Amino acid sequence: MADLKKLLEDKTYLQIPKPDDIIKGRVLSVSKNEIRIDIDGYKTGIVRGPELKDESGATGELKVGDEVEATVVDLENENGEVELSLRFAGHKRAWDKLAEMMKSGEILPVKITEANKGGLMLAINHVAGFLPVSQLSPDNYPRVPGGEKQKILEKLRSLVGKTMDVRVLDVSETENKLIVSEKAVWEDRQREVIAKFKVGDTVEAEITALTDFGAFVRFENLEGLIHISELAWQRIDHPSEVVKVGDKVLAKIVGIDGSKIFLSLKQLAHDPWKNISERYKVGEVVKGKILKSNPFGFFVELDPEIHGLAHISELAKHPVKSIDEIGRPGDEMEFKIVSIEPEQHRLGLSLKDMDSSATEATEDKETAEIPAAVPEPEAKKEDIPLAETTEEKPAEETKEEPATLRPF
Q: Rounded mean pLDDT of the chain?
C-alpha cells in the first residue's frame, strides 16, 4: 500500500493529459503522412494529415529518437492512440518566440513578400507580419508630392523581394497581430551619430526631396526636415519657390526629437522685419502686388521680403460678394498700411481706408476751388436818400389783453 501511494503521489510517473495540453514525447516512427510519438508514462500518440505542419518550422525534419512537443487533440482515436497535433504546438511556440523577440529587441532580417497602400507584408517563423508605412526607414519611406496613393503603392511594390532589418514592435496571438518596424532599427543605429549634434548647430545639407509641407535634407547620413515655414521669412506656397532637389544649403538645427531632426534656412538669413519701421509706417500709402486671394482677403507683396494681408473686412465699406470683383492675383494696387507687428511678422493693409482718403481729398479739392464770397462795401450815410434818413416815429402803444385762465 505504501508503494502504491508513493506511485500515485509521484506526478512524474503518471500524468494523464487532457485535450489542448502540450505534451513532450519521443519520436517512434516517421512516414510521409504520419508520425508516432511515445508519450512517456502514458501511451502512444499519433500525428497525421494537416496536423503535421509546424508553424514554427522546428519539426520540419524530425527523425526517430527526437524529442518533440505536441498538442493533445483527442485522448483516444479509433485505434486507441492519442491524437496529437504539431501544428497547434508549433503555433504557440512561434508566438512565444515572437514575444521574446519583442522583449529583447532582437534585430531580424525579413524578406518582403507583398505590398498594399498601408505597408508591407512579411513572415517571421511562418507567422504573417506587417510593416506599416510609418515604420519604414527614411531610405525606404515613399515620399510622393501630393501624397498620391497610387504612386505611394508603386514605390512600396518596388520593395517586394527586398530583405530588411526589423524589430518586433507589437505581438498579439489572440488578435493574430504581428507588427514590425524598420525605422526602430534605423533610429538605434543613428543614435550615436545624432548625439554629435545639438539644437543651434549649423550644418551643410543636401536637399533630397520636396513635399507640400517642407524640404527633406540629408547630412552625415542623417535625415532632417525643413518645414515650409522655416524656408523663408516671406510667405511661400511651395518649397520649390526657394530650393530644389540637389541644392546644397546651410541650415540651422532648431529641434531634435528622437530620430527626427528639424532645421531652418531662414534663421541663418537676415530678418527683414527687424528694421520694418525704417521702411514702412502705419498710415502710409504703398503700392503692392496681389500674390494670392483667399476667401478672407489678399496676400500682397510690398517688396520681395515683406508681404502683407488685406483682410476682406478692409477691402470695401460695403459687403463684398466676391473678392474677385476687387482684385485678382497679379494686380498692382495702392493700399494703406493700417498695422505693423514686427514680432509676429504681420502687416495689415486696407483698401477701404484708401477710398475714404480719396473722398476726403476730392472734397477738399472741390472746396478749395469754390471762390470765397466778397463782402459788399458798406453804404455811406451821405449816399442814402433823404426820405430814408427821416427818423422813425415811435410805435403806437398797444394794450395787452389779460391772459385767460384755463383750468388744469
A: 81
pLDDT for 394 beyond 50: no
Q: Which CATH number fits domain 16-93: 2.60.40.10, 2.40.50.140, 3.80.30.30, 3.40.30.10?
A: 2.40.50.140
CATH class of 196-268: mainly beta
Q: How far apart are CA 57 and CA 35, in angstroms?
A: 16
Enumerate the CATH 2.40.50.140 domain ranges in the chain, comma separated: 16-93, 105-184, 196-268, 277-357
Tell me the pLDDT band of 7, cut-offs 50, 70 and 90. Answer: low
Domain 277-357 class, CATH top level = mainly beta
Cα dihedral across residues 399, 405, 406, 408: positive or negative: positive
* Amino acid identity, position 370: I
Q: Based on the number of CB atoms within 10 Å of its own CB, is 336 exposed (0-12), middle (13-18) or buried (19 or more)? A: buried
Contact 234, 304 (CB under 8 A): yes
Q: Exposure of 232 by Cβ count < 10 A (0-12 exposed, 13-18 middle, 19+ buried)?
A: middle
Regarding pTM above 0.70, the answer is: no
Give the per-residue pLDDT at 70.
86
Q: How far apart are CA 387 and CA 225, in angstroms?
A: 105
147: helix, coil or strand? helix
- Whole-number pLDDT of residue 259: 78
Question: Which tens digit of pLDDT belongs to each residue from 26-50?
Answer: 999 888 888 898 987 688 899 988 7
**164 beta partners:** 110
**25 burial via Cβ count (<10 Å: 0-12, 13-18, 19+):** buried
**CATH topology for the 105-184 domain:** OB fold (Dihydrolipoamide Acetyltransferase, E2P) (2.40.50)
Euclidean distance between CA atoms 353 and 368, whole angstroms: 22
